[in-house]
Amino acid sequence: MLTDLLKHNRRWATGKRLEDPDYFKRLSALQRPEYLWIGCSDSRVPANVITGLEPGEVFVHRNVANLVHRADLNLLSVLEFAVETLGVSHIIVCGHYGCGGVRAATDGHRHGIIDHWLQPIRDVADDRSGELEGITDPDIRLNRLCELNIEAQVASLSRTPIIQSAWKRGKKLSIHGWVYGLNDGLIRDLECGRADCGCSHQGEGPEDCEQFRRRDEDDRSA
Ligand SMILES: [Zn+2]
């Protein structure tokens, strides 16, 4: 019932005020999240809930199958605002196993407009058909395509002019590819992240990079 939602909201707001009387005053005056989350619209993968982040701690963009379309004004506006104005340091592209969008992209049926939206997934499936055709279990094959899609979106995001220009200006910004398991509630780092480390390590997880880690430590001790 809708009224339950409003009742829950009042209880939540009262609880927050009891815990910390300035909670909403502080939040309304400023948002300075460290993270931009690009995730799937699937209702079972809510960014704040599964990462334990509070309001104000993560800027969120979600669409079907967590895709980065180069001409998506919605995503590009969110991305530019997050990078240029909010100054996030980490962008997380988080997909999930058993993604209905990824399944719909490759099930051979016509679904409507969404088929156009899902085209990048079919491109990934075509590019990696050799590997995917070798997987006989359809669920495992779908889950592998979910991972490959996340990796492709991380790569696509890293090539956008917004990210390229931020890196050129020396901004410390890394992109991570994560996958969430609906079955166990756990997030796994696919280690396909990108960071401007000034070294040739691109394509590996940024945390593995010596130079990136050192710069991060320098920043924290400064
Ligand atoms: Zn999904």
Task: Write a concise keyword list for the protein shown above.
222 residues, alpha/beta, Beta-carbonic Anhydrase, Chain A, 2 domains, 6 strands, binds zinc ion
Summarize the entry for a quick read:
Helix 7 crosses helix 9 (138-158). The chain folds into 2 domains: 1-30, no CATH class; 33-221, Beta-carbonic Anhydrase, Chain A (3-Layer(aba) Sandwich), CATH 3.40.1050.10.
Walk me through the structure.
The chain has 222 residues and is α/β, with parallel strands linked by helices. The protein folds into 2 domains: 1-30, no CATH class; 33-221, Carbonic anhydrase (Beta-carbonic Anhydrase, Chain A, 3-Layer(aba) Sandwich). Helices cover 50% and strands 14% of the residues. It contains 11 helices and 6 strands. Strands 1, 2, 3, 4, 5 and 6 form a 6-stranded mixed β-sheet that branches. Helix 7 packs across helix 9 (138-158). The chain is globular. The termini are far apart. 27% of the residues are buried. The model is unreliable at 198-206 (pLDDT under 50). The structure holds zinc ion. The site of zinc ion has 7 residues, from helix 5.
- Estimate nothing, just give the exact number of structural domains: 2
Helix vs. strand class: alpha/beta
Look at the structure and name the CATH superfamily of the largest domain. Carbonic anhydrase
Q: Tell me the radius of gyration.
A: 19 Å
Mean pLDDT: 91
CATH classification, class level of the largest domain:
Alpha Beta
